[in-house]
Amino acid sequence: QVQLVESGGGLVQAGGSLTLSCTASGRTSRGFVMGWFRQPPGKEREFVAAISRITGTPYYADSVKGRFTLSRDYTKNTVALQMNSLKPEDTAVYYCAADTGDTISIMRDDFDYWGQGTQVTVSS
Questions:
Q1: Separation between Cα atoms, residue 3 and residue 24, nearest integer Å
Q2: How confident is the model at residue 59 (pLDDT cuts 50, 70, 90)?
Q3: Which parts of 1-116 are beta strand (E)?
Q4: pLDDT at 28
Q5: What is the pLDDT of residue 3?
Q6: Are 91 and 122 in contact (CB under 8 A)?
Q7: pLDDT at 31
Q8: Rounded CA gap, 67 and 76, in Å?
C-alpha cells in the first residue's frame, strides 16, 4: 500500500502564492507518476498537473499553465506544486494522486492512490 499526505493549503488573496506538498510513503520503491487534481465547490474533480515517474517532466492543465509549477524530489518521495498568480476560480480541495503506470495520464480513474485533500481558498 501507498499513503499520500498533502500539506500547504490555506487562504490567500487573489494574485498571491501557495505551495502544496505531497509525500508518499509505503511501497514506493518503484516510483509513480504523481499528480494533482482539484475539486471546486459543487463541481467534478479535475486534473491540474502531473509529473513523469522517470524523467520528471511535468504536464499541466491549460487553466494553470504558466502559473503553477510541479516538481518532485525523488530522494524524499515528495512532489511540490508551486501556485502563483492565484485566482478565485482556483478555490478547491486539492488532491495528490499516484499512478503506478509508466506514462502521464490526466484521467482521474488512472490514478491508484489518493491523499485526503487540502483546501485552497483564494479570496477576491
A1: 6
A2: very high
A3: 2-7, 10-13, 18-26, 33-39, 46-51, 58-60, 68-73, 78-83, 92-99, 113-114
A4: 78
A5: 94
A6: yes
A7: 81
A8: 24
Q: Could you identify the residue written with the cell 509505503?
A: 26
- Between CA 122 and CA 11 the distance in angstroms is 6
Residues whose CB falls within 8 Å of the CB of residue 31, separated by 6 or more in sequence, listed in order = 53, 54, 74
Q: Give me the phi and psi of 112, to 5 degrees please.
A: -95, -30
**pLDDT tens digits, residue range 93-124?**
999 999 988 888 999 999 999 999 999 999 99
Side-chain-side CA neighbours of 77 within 13 Å: the count stands at 17
Burial of 75 (0-12, 13-18, 19+ CB in 10 A): exposed
Instruction: Give the pLDDT score at 1.
Output: 86
- β-pairing, 118-123 vs 10-13, is parallel
In single-letter form, the type of residue at position 24 comes to: A
Write out 44-68 in H/E/C secondary structure. Answer: CCEEEEEECCCCCCEEECCCCCCCE
